[in-house]
Amino acid sequence: MTDVKDTAVDTSYIDHAPQQKELHMTNRNIEKAAQLAPIVERVHGAHHPELSRVRKITAELQDSANGPHVSSLFHELRTVTDNYAIPKDVCEAFEATYHALERADRQHEAA
Length: 111
What we know:
globular; single chain; mainly alpha
């Protein structure tokens, strides 16, 4: 019979797995938004000048991964987008961009 006290169990993965999943989900959302942002800006930029800044911030987020200034970039995005409010006169790509950014923001805050 094996004594339970003598059995070593590696539990180090437990603490890191959720954090890695959050990082992956955030990156996937940022990648999606970064792909769509230039298109959305081109289509809707004349009526929504904030999209230029949204595209630039999204590119900065993509380049910075989880650097120290990511929180301030998300704060600026919330300000520029009025907390990711979707205007009534936009296409699905616009909506998808804001939804992806909002998901990434929430995941970053939860991490």
